[in-house]
């Protein structure tokens, strides 16, 4: 397996990651963190920088013995961590947020090296990791008295589950990892985190940074491939899996977690629709729709992936979107002028190009893009596609790349039916000047989150989760915290 790692400090100073000609010995590497200590790998895989298609790091590949050590450490630390108060655990997590900010530049450069996104967006990701954690720990799960009468008092309490296994994808390496740590530890569990093998370096470094901030065994970081993910889900010493990734893998996680009846939270893919009514100001909404579809090169679970536009404004909105796409600067994320980076890995790059070929063969029209850009990285031109319809892969599947199909509609009821005609149900939005009508329509979208006149965004105090095959359960908000806890109804008689 191959994954790109960050370059030397000297190259980072120079601005651009240029890993060509780098020997194996000079590749960056970090250890796992197990039981509060760095643990060097015995086997490694390379991490590829998607802007150069060259290896920039060597990632340790955890063995089953490493996992066993981490499980024993996490179980050993469980009891005393669970006895801390919310306030004590909050203080630890605020310390982690501060440490993340102290390492902002280093973590941002690791993210751009492994994921490809523009460095300014990587800095945002580091900041959001810290700020979301700070916001999450303003919440608390309170005891609730369900009955207090002549028969007795029944109180609903929540206790930690034990050890959480957290498995993350490659599109947002840090901001999908840190909140899982925050949910797990704040609710009194200990945690073993497994980042994506495509983007493990920022998480491994986070493990090192966090080492001294928690008692040994509370936070363990293990890197590895898909097998490590499976071992985590099967392990009888792990009580809950919090998984973010694709629908296909989510189903595997649920199946293997069933053997031990582990709790699972699944945050999965989406094919999210935005519906634009003909009363909008086209020039005002086009940049907002573009940002919500193409941010992170379209590699955001909740990005707009199908845009339904009312017929009378269809030509002008398509044209406005194409204009923005053609003016977008795509390239190496270390170049400060770049607005969109590459697709994160070669396999995903192939999937997106195959979907474009499939649509082209069926008569799709490309108003912008539709092709790869010169390499060596995995660059695809921001693509606006028309003359597309349901039944094409580009419309029915989650492209997860810088590609947006735009579909016209005449009747808004039909648009709602078409938006809902998918096995996904992550998010959706309605765009109109009439907020009341917008809310009524957003209420008919089958999704975990729906918006009016906005799309993409997360507040750590508001639960986020998918409908249908986009997930099970939620994270964030008090409901998200409860998903990391066991509810117990305590029944005490009066006498
Ligand atoms: P993926 O499912 O391929 O991999 C995700 C993680 O699962 C990786 O760490 C991988 O090593 C691990 N894994 C693979 N096989 C496993 C198994 N059998 N058991 C346990 N773990 C296993 O997903 P990806 O390609 O890394 O990420 C892209 C997907 O993630 C997209 O579908 C995107 O929409 C989704 N996503 C969802 C959210 C959300 O909050 N709903 C957020 C970001 C990304």
From TrEMBL:
Similarity comment: family membership: Belongs to the aldehyde dehydrogenase family.
Cited Pfam families: Aldedh
Protein name (record): Aldehyde dehydrogenase family protein
Residue ranges of every copy of the Aldehyde dehydrogenase domain listed in the record: 44-489
UniProt organism field: Noviherbaspirillum album
Keywords associated with the record: Oxidoreductase
Entry-linked CDD domains: ALDH_AldA-AAD23400
InterPro entries found in the cross-reference section: Ald_DH/histidinol_DH, Ald_DH_C, Ald_DH_CS_CYS, Ald_DH_CS_GLU, Ald_DH_N, Aldehyde_DH_dom, LUC3-like
Active site per UniProt: 267
């Amino acid at each position: 397996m191959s994954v790109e790692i960050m370059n030397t400090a000297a190259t980072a100073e120079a601005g651009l990651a240029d890993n060509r000609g780098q020997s194996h010995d000079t590749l960056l590497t970090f250890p796992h963190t197990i039981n509060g200590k760095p643990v060097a790998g015995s086997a490694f895989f390379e991490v590829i920088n998607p802007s150069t298609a060259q290896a920039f790091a060597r990632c340790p590949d955890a063995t089953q013995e490493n996992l066993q050590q981490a499980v024993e450490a996490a179980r050993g630390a469980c009891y005393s961590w669970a006895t801390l108060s919310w306030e004590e655990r909050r203080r630890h997590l605020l310390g982690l947020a501060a440490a993340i900010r102290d390492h902002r530049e280093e973590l941002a450069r690791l993210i751009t090296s492994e994921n490809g996104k523009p460095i300014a967006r990587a800095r945002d990701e580091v900041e959001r990791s810290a700020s979301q954690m700070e916001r999450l720990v303003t919440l608390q799960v309170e005891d609730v008295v369900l009955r207090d009468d002549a028969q007795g008092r029944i109180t609903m309490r929540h206790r930690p589950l034990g050890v959480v296994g957290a498995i993350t994808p490659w599109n947002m390496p840090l901001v999908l990892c840190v909140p899982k740590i925050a949910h797990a530890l704040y609710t009194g569990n200990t945690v073993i985190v497994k980042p994506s093998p495509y983007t493990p370096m920022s998480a491994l470094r986070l493990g090192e940074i966090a080492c001294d901030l928690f008692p040994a065994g509370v936070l363990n970081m293990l890197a590895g491939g898909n097998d490590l993910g499976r071992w985590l889900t099967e392990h009888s010493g792990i009580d809950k899996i919090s998984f973010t990734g694709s629908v296909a893998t989510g189903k595997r996680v649920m199946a293997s977690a069933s053997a031990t009846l582990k709790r699972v939270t699944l945050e999965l893919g989406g094919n999210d629709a935005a519906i634009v009514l003909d009363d909008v100001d086209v020039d005002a909404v086009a940049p907002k729709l573009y940002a919500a579809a193409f941010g992170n090169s379209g590699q955001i679970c909740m990005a707009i992936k199908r845009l339904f536009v009312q017929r009378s404004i269809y030509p002008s909105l398509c044209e406005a979107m194409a204009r923005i796409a053609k003016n977008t600067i795509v390239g190496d994320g270390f170049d400060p002028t770049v607005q969109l980076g590459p697709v994160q890995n070669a396999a995903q790059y192939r999937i997106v190009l195959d979907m474009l070929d499939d649509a082209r063969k069926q008569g799709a029209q490309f108003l912008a893009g539709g092709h790869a850009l010169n390499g060596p990285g995995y660059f695809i031109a921001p693509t606006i596609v028309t003359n597309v319809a349901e039944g094409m892969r580009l419309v029915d599947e989650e492209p997860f790349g810088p590609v947006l199909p735009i579909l016209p509609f005449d009747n808004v009821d039909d648009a709602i039916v078409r938006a809902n005609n998918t096995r996904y149900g992550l998010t959706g939005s309605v765009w109109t000047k009439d907020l009341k009508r917008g809310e009524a329509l957003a209420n008919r979208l089958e999704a975990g989150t729906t918006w009016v006149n906005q799309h993409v965004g997360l507040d750590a105090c508001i639960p986020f989760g998918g409908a249908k095959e986009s997930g099970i359960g939620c994270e964030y908000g008090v409901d998200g915290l409860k998903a990391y806890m066991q509810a117990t109804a305590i029944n005490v008689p009066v006498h």
